[in-house]
Specification:
Blueprint (H helix, E strand, L loop, with lengths): L3 E10 L2 H17 L3 E2 L17 E7 L2 H9 L1 H9 L4 E9 L3
Antiparallel strand pairs: 1-3, 1-4, 2-3
Helix pairs in contact: 1-3
């Protein structure tokens, strides 16, 4: 079965303190949903092509369906409420390949 992934790119963060509050709620929700964080905010980046070094978070799940269910979970929906307006985020759930 193909894995599922959450991919989050953060082009702009103007309220890091409130983003930390979101992370404190989102982390346990992701773990409860079976997610494993594969990349961290603030990790090393070598940018090519457009040269953009935005923050990227990559989270792996055992399946695409598990990734969708984790996003739709009550715990993660509560975390989303804490995501501040000052954070611009591009979020996707994608299917992996076998």
């Amino acid at each position: 079965m193909a894995k599922g992934y959450w991919v989050s790119v953060y082009p702009a963060i103007s309220d890091l303190e409130r983003l930390t509050a979101y992370n404190e709620l989102a982390g346990p929700a992701v773990q409860a949903g079976g997610g494993r964080v594969l990349s961290l905010l603030g990790g090393r980046v070598v940018a090519h092509e457009a040269g953009i070094t935005q923050r990227v978070v990559l989270i792996e799940f055992d399946s695409f369906e598990q990734a969708v269910a984790a996003y739709e979970s009550e715990a993660y929906q509560k975390a989303l409420v804490a995501l501040p307006d000052g954070v611009e985020r591009d979020f996707r759930i994608i299917d992996g390949i076998d």
